[in-house]
Design goal:
With 394 residues, the protein is an alpha/beta fold. It has 3 domains: 221 residues, Rossmann fold, CATH 3.40.50; 40 residues; 33 residues. 41% of the residues lie in helices and 16% in strands. Strands 6-7-8-3-9-10 form a 6-stranded mixed sheet, with helices on both faces. Strand 7, helix 6 and strand 8 form a beta-alpha-beta unit. Helix 3 packs across helix 4, helix 3 runs parallel beside helix 5 and helix 4 crosses helix 5.
């Protein structure tokens, strides 16, 4: 329905140029209800005037139903406005005409036949709830009633688009709600409604699409939104990183670690000798965690077969029903072994003692046999032999 494409609008003032719109772009679909909000001087009124051709953009284009109106000839502006219903904050009613005459005058401008015009006027008065005020003059009506007449006048030609610039600015809260209820009813009939307002209460209650403008830029465009939601900045475009001066992976410009310059002082960090226990992840415990040695304990390599064998032995031991007999057998075995060991020890000691005694006797004999007595011993042996011979002869 409505499309803005990079629209700029600048006003010249005594203090210098003022950028009312600084390159805004958005689209509004058929049948939508949209609130345009923003501070005074933010550019929302200029945006509304660009839709009704009261202002022409300096740059960019504005489309309504795929028809560019930003460079449209001035002679065609009245034709465009026949399809747009406009509601203003100051009502803009003709004081010299009655309520019904103000509504009929708008129908005459757009070319509605007189035989149908009276029926249309009565229908519009019923729509805004002022059928009994048909012959009253604008001065005789309250502000809310004058605004409802302005809405009825804008709806005479059954427009596809309704534009309302601060329609509740001069009204009390209750009357403002009635005006917005009328606009919502018109929107349900298929008419696209664009409302420029400062009334945060109405925006929060209706929860329609909100376009927020600040300094000529759109800072929020969100459906089912409220007046005072947090404004999130649009993500910045990713810069071109093709010529940033570094490469990912192995860079031929750096051949050693010292070629990489950084602001980290390794020597200063090493001098601090900060223990590992001073660092914790998450919530620090009450007592400091013990320092764990950085060198892992050697792990014995165990094959799968050994593990299975150990597990089978353990299972056999656990399933044994008589652990006491095993202990008794072990004790008997230990006693038998100790007895055998003691006997072997005694035999060795006796043999050592006999050997020592024989060595002593041999030494004594060797000491008795000398160069002086060995001849005597030989002679005695010869004499003994002779005696034996004589005894044999006899």
């Amino acid at each position: 329905m409505i499309s803005f494409a990079d629209v700029h609008k600048t006003y010249q003032a005594k203090s210098g140029s003022v950028d009312a719109l600084n390159g805004i772009s958005f689209d509004i679909e058929d049948g939508e209800f949209v609130f345009i909000i923003g501070k005074s001087g933010s550019g929302k009124s200029t945006l509304m005037k660009c839709i009704t051709c009261e202002e022409t953009p300096d740059e960019g284009e504005v489309y309504i139903d795929d028809f560019c109106i930003s460079d449209m000839p001035r002679a065609l502006v009245p034709v465009l406005r026949r399809h747009i219903g406009m509601v203003y904050q100051d009502f803009r009613l003709i004081e010299s005409k009655t309520v019904s005459e103000n509504i009929a005058f708008a129908g005459e401008i757009v070319g509605i036949p007189k035989k149908n015009l009276n029926q249309i006027v009565q229908f519009m008065l019923n729509l805004v709830g002022l059928k009994d005020k048909a012959d009253a003059y604008p001065k005789e009506l309250s502000g809310g009633e004058q605004q409802r007449i302005a809405i009825a006048r804008a709806m005479v030609n059954n427009p596809k688009l309704m534009v309302a610039d601060e329609p509740t600015g001069n009204l009390d809260p209750e009357t403002s709600e009635n005006i917005m209820a009328i606009l919502q009813e018109i929107n349900r009939g298929g008419t696209t409604v664009v409302v420029c307002t400062h009334d945060s209460n109405l925006v929060d209650r209706m929860k329609k699409r909100v376009i927020q403008i600040e300094d000529g830029l759109i800072v929020r465009d969100k459906r089912d939104s409220m007046y005072n939601e947090e404004v999130t900045e649009a993500p910045k475009p990713i810069e071109n990183t093709s010529d940033v001066g570094f490469a990912f992976g192995d860079d031929p410009n750096f051949s050693h670690d010292s070629d990489y310059a950084d602001s980290f002082d390794d020597e200063e960090y090493a001098a601090k000798e900060t223990p590992l226990s001073d660092f914790f992840f998450g919530d620090s415990p009450v007592a400091p965690a013990p320092v764990v040695s950085a060198t892992p304990a050697p792990v014995e390599e165990t094959s799968v077969e050994e593990i299975l064998e150990e597990e089978s032995i353990d299972s056999i031991i656990e399933l044994t029903d008589e652990p006491e007999e095993d202990e008794t057998a072990e004790d008997v075995t230990e006693e038998t072994t100790s007895e055998i060991t003691e006997e072997e020890t005694r035999d060795e000691q006796e043999s050592q003692e006999e050997t020592a005694a024989a060595d002593v006797v041999a030494e004594e004999k060797s000491e008795e046999i000398t160069e002086d007595n060995w001849i005597e011993e030989i002679s005695l042996e010869e004499s003994d032999i002779d005696l034996d011979i004589q005894e044999d002869d006899e």
